[in-house]
Write a structure and sequence with these properties.
Blueprint lengths: L1 H15 L3 H12 L7 H15 L3 H6 L7 H4 L5 H11 L6 H4 L1 H7 L8 E3 L5 H11 L1 E5 L9 E5 L6 H10 L4 E4 L5 H6 L6 E8 L5 E10 L13 E4 L10 E3 L4 E2 L17 H11 L8 E8 L4 E7 L9 H4 L6 H8 L2
Antiparallel strand pairs: 1-4, 2-3, 2-4, 5-6, 5-10, 6-7, 7-8, 8-9, 10-11
Length: 338
Amino acid sequence: MRWFTAKVRYVLERATRISPTRILGFARQAQRITPRTPLPFIIVDMFFCVVRYQTTFEHYAQWDYRILKGRERRTFMTEPISAMLSRRLNSQAKRAIFDDKIRFAQHFPDDIGRDWLDARSANADQVSAFLARHGRVLAKDPGGVGGDGISVYDAETCADPKALRAEVIADGKPLLEEFLQQHEEMSRLYPGSVNTLRIVTYRDPSDEVHVLARVLKIGNGGFIDNYSGGGMYTMVDESGRALHAAYDGAGTVFDRHPSSGVHIEGFQVPLFDDVIAFAKDLATRVPEMPYIGWDIAITPTRPVVIEGNHNTGVFQSRPAVTGTREGLLPVYRAAMDF
């Protein structure tokens, strides 16, 4: 009874944090794959799954819970379970390394593969030299998430470095970074953003590093590839080959990239063995943080890390798109023993 009460309290708390309009939107998204199912029935089933399987309203739609049987629903990893594991396993004291992009760059200086400057500790001449050196730079909020708080500045249009410095500091975007040059194959997929891989790792108590998920994130119409920023993703196999079509947060499925026309299923990620070896090495750098999702870009010569996420999020294959009706929870359980 106590378990049931806690579950009900949890779903009510989640329901109060999300607008009824969004819940209805997710229900309608789920209804697309079973159009004859009444919307009220889907909404009731959504609430049931949030309680029973600790999923979210968004992921009910995203991972096609509507068409899954109970035993299949139980195999899907969920955001609440992932967040619980992060709180349990990752050190609160060390999270600042991953929450602050400047601290992350300082902690992984040889791995980020790009020049950067903190405008707060630089003068106008240093900002001017940074712009001249790179031509085009990103300005980021050091604590930003999901691609939020990113602006682009070109040296040709920034005649006053002093004013630029004041602007990025006032806007809370003092971190200046050069644009990465990505591998030509990743650029062929979509040249408008740096397309990255989310490699989720867990280092167990015996120091063995497990790869829990391999995700290819692709931009679409913008200069970031984040799922929350209009991008799309697909899962890749152990050799780095895309397993299926990609999809975005609205549930749109892409067999080919709408800008480049590149067929997504079967796309081979370059230097993938290097990517996995790199991620496993990164996973050993902060022993107090064993459960991390690494965003890794691929330059013409090597993989580099964009950031590490202690709240890594969850990525899985959509059953309605792929025919795969099993999620990654068994993979996580086998590695993490929970």
